[in-house]
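Researcher: I'd like a structural prediction for the single chain below. Treat it as a standalone chain; there are no partners to consider.
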Amino acid sequence: MATQFSVADLSLELYRFPRQQNANLQAWDAADEHLILSLIENDVSSITSSYKLTSFKHIAIINDAFGGLTCGLSAHASQLAHPLCIWIESDAKTSVQGIQSNLQNNQLSLDHIHWITSNAMLPNDLDAIFIKLPKNLNYFTEQLQRLSRTLPANTPVFIAAKAKTINAALLNNITNNLGPASASLAYKKTRIITCMSDGNVRSSMPSNTWTVPEYQLTLNNLSNVFSATKLDIGARCMLENMPKGQFNHIVDLGCGNGVLGLRAAQLFPHAHIHFIDDSNMATTSAKQNWQGNNFPSKQGHFYWSDCLSELPNEIAPELILCNPPFHQGEAITDHIAWQMFIEARQRLAKNGILHVVGNRHLAYHVKLKRIFKNCTTVASNGKFVILQAQKR
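Model: Treating it as a single chain, here is the predicted structure.
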């Protein structure tokens, strides 16, 4: 795994969060390099010479994965005569923790850094915005619309992305929702989109609301929540094969919009349901859905958390429901599932159950047998399998 991030005159040690020494994934990409080079050396992009890092005192960085942009710009700014005030907006708790960890590991100050979540508003006195293009373009559109409500006209916005993701439709979307946009020449298969905010305020897209009539549930999905308009087939398979037993504390791990936890609340009305997700929008959606479907407020608990790290120590759940993601951003990886299964084994009560749904080809049964020393197939179809492991 590459950890040495060298760009311009900078050399930093960067890690993904949590550190996965055996994972062949690095904490930055060429788009980070491109944007930093553009601002420091101004020799690989169409960003005009009037826009260098020395031009700015207050900036925002949006969608930085693990600190490539934040650490790179912070390291260069530390050499400048004036401090650089940076606002960080992220929907992923692991990104926030990764950025914080990498700043500390590289002895970079956090004193001038401020943090906001994905559904908060940035201040209106920023000199420039730097964005990594997210995979979810509906989420990106919502981000542009939110920026249009706070940025004065002629505020520069720089968007770093893989060249293959940039097309006329994307540039039109940016123009329609924030201001005129154009793309730079390519560098290492990436480009920088430069947008000038036009000062016109846009309303946000309404969140998606839809029903699951067979379970009498109404679901609301914010823009960065998985399966935004319908019940995904993995969750449906799980709902059709929920576990039986007596449970006081149930965890919906990687909860998304919370549909598994909501169904658990119907089946086990006296249980406390704990909703956990790395996405702030997911836990917000789950909470809205809990309230919107009139479940008891004192029995629903919500955590923006890297796996189970924020679950109170005194909670030892008897049941954990889990539909693990197999990607982190654009990276395909199984380390999140590994982490979920390992932490579930650590936190479950004795004889507690981990109930998992996954694509058959992911072979989760191998991982579960290794961690729990047991694994039972509850149900399966041509694509999905429901597995159950017990802490003994």
